[in-house]
Amino acid sequence: MRTVNVIRAQLRASLSLAVQYRLDFVVEGLLAILWMAVTLVPLLVVFQARQQIVGWTFPEMLLVLGWFVGLKGLLEGAVSPSLMNVIEHVRKGTLDFVLLKPVDAQLLVSLAKIEPWRSIDLFGAAAIFLYAFRQLGRWPSSTDLLLAAAMLGTAVVVMYSIAILVVSIAFFAVRVDNLLYLFQSIFDVARWPSSIFRGTLAIVFTYVLPLALMTTYPALALLGKLTLPTTVGALVGTALFAAFARAIWRVSIARYTSASS
Amino acid sequence: MIEVEHLRKWYRVHRRPPGLAAALRSLFHRPYETVKAVDDISFSIAAGERVGFLGPNGAGKTTTLKVLSGLLHPTEGRVLVAGSTPQDRARSFLQQITLVMGQKQQLLWDLPPSETFLLNRAIYDIPKKEYEATLAELTALLELAPLLGKPTRQLSLGERMKCELAVALLHRPKVLFLDEPTIGLDVSMQATVRGFVREYNQRFGATVLLTSHYMEDVAALCPRVMVIDKGKLIYDGSLHELVRRVRPDKRMIVRLTRPVERRDLESLGAVVEHRDAEAVVQVTQDALQGAVARALSTLPLHDLTVEDPPLEEVMRDLFAQGRAA
C-alpha cells in the first residue's frame, strides 16, 4: 500500500513540476509532435524506391515504428529525466536524502521526474498503429493483442534496466550524462526491425543490447508472427536482465560514499 | 539510544602531485593513501539527550553522523542506534531517524514546500490525522503558514531552513542528526531554529545530536558536548566542565565611574581590554575571590561582572592544545 501511495505522490509531484511552467508545456508539446513527424521521414524515403525490406512491407514496418515512437516517448519522458536526476543527486551528494527514506531507493528515483508532454508520443504511436492496420486491411486478434501487451511489458522493463545499469555507473564514475545520451542514440536503431541487421550486429542488438525485444518482437506479436519459443525466451531473458540490473544497482548503492559535508 | 564502540571509518583516497605530468602518470599508477576520518571513537547517548558535536573542519563530525544514520558503512567497530545497526537501513530504523544538513536540501526546488511534505507523508506512510496534527504543530512552532505555498526557490535561506526542518520531522523521528542546521542563517533565525530544536526535544523526548560551527548553538542547546579532532574523541562531558578544564581562568568585566590608569588594573590580573572607564581583566580561578575584593576596595566601580572566557576562544585553545600534543 505504501508503495502505491509513494508512486501516486511522486507522479503528482512530478506532474505539478511539469505544469509549473506553462510556456514550457506548450513548446515541449509542439516539439514532441514535430519530432514524431521527423521520425517518419527515413521510412518514407526508403519505401519510395522499393516494396519491402528483408521481408517487411511498409505497413508492417510502420508497426515497428509505432512501438519505437511509443517507447521513445516513455524513455525520454519518464526514464531518462528521472535517472538524470539521480546522476545530479550523486554529484551534489543529495542522494543521502533518498537513501535515508524507509522506501526502496530504486523506486524513489525511478519516477522522480517526468515530462508529461511526451505522452503525445503515445497518441502518435496509436495513430501509427491504426494507419498501419488499415493499410494491412486486417486487425490483430485478441491473442495477438495480449501477446503484444506482454512484449510491451518486457520492452519497458528492458529499457528501464539498461538505464538503471547506466546510472549505476554514476556511483563510480560520477559523470555519466553522456552515457545516457549514448544509449538514447543507440536506441534509435530500434526503429528498424532486427532482421535488417546481419552477423555481429544482429547478435549485439538481440542479446547484448536487446533492441529486438523492444520494438521488433511486439510488432511481430501484433502481426501474429511471434513464435512460442521466442516469447518464452523473451520473458525469461527479460526477468534475468532485470534481476541483473537490480543486483548491480544494489552493489552501487552500497559503494556510494556521498559528497563530503 | 545511541551506542558507539571503537568506531573507525577510513577512506582510501587517491593522491597525486599537481601538474599535467603527474595527472598523466596517475592514469597508469595511482598511489593511494588512507585517511582516518574517524579513528576509534566510543560513546553512548541516552534517549532524550541533546548532545553537541564539536570539532574543526575535517575532524570527522559529518562522517560520524553519516555512519550513525546508515549512509556510510563503518570500517570497524559496532554502532547501534534505536536498537538497530544503521548500515542495514532497516525500514523500522529509517522510520525513527532524521538527518538535517544545513548545506544540502531535500525540498523540491521548483515546487512549494507543501508538495515535498505530501511526498514525505506517502514515503513515511503517515496516517492522515497524525500528518495533519504534526503539520499544524510544526506550522505553528516555525511560523510556516505564509511559506508553504511559495515555490522553494523563492524562499530565503532562513525560510528554506525552517521548511527543511519541518519536512525532516514530519514523521516524528526519535533521533535527530543535525549537521550544521544554522549555517549561513542570521542571528535571529539561528535563535528560532535553536528554540525549535529544544522545543521538539522536550515535547517528543527525542534524542538530538548536533554539529555546529556556531558555539552559541551548542551553548544554548547542548548540556553535553563531544569534541572530535583528527578523528579522535578528545572530550566528552558537560560544556561547563570543558570550559573549566581548557580555560580555568575567568574574565572580570569592570565598568568604572571614571577612567583609571592601566597599572591600577594590572594589580588585579592580566588586562585583556582597557578603554577609559571599561576593562576586561583575566584572572585565574584561585585568584578570583581576592581580585574581586581588591577591585571593590580600590576601584571607582560602577558595575562588575564575572564571565567564562568566550567559547570561540575555548575551542581555539582546545584545538591548539591538540595540535601541540
Describe the 3D structure:
The complex is a heterodimer of chains A (261) and B (325). Helices cover 78% and strands 2% of the residues of chain A. Chain A has 261 residues and is mainly alpha-helical. Chain A has one domain. Chain A has a two-stranded antiparallel ribbon. Chain A is globular, with a radius of gyration of 19 Å. Chain B has 325 residues and is an alpha/beta fold. In chain B, the strands form three sheets. Chain B has a six-stranded mixed β-sheet with strand order 5-6-7-3-8-9, with helices on both faces. A four-stranded antiparallel β-sheet of chain B has the order 11-12-10-13. In chain B, strands 2-1-4 form a three-stranded antiparallel β-sheet. In chain B, a hairpin with a 2-residue loop joins strand 11 (270-275) and strand 12. In chain B, helix 4 runs parallel beside helix 6 and helix 5 packs antiparallel against helix 6. The two termini of chain B are 33 Å apart. Chains A and B meet through helix 1 and helix 4 of A and helix 3, strand 5 and helix 4 of B.
Question: Descriptors for this entry?
Answer:
heterodimer, A: 261 residues, two-stranded antiparallel sheet, 2 strands, 2% strand, B: 325 residues, 2 domains, six-stranded mixed sheet
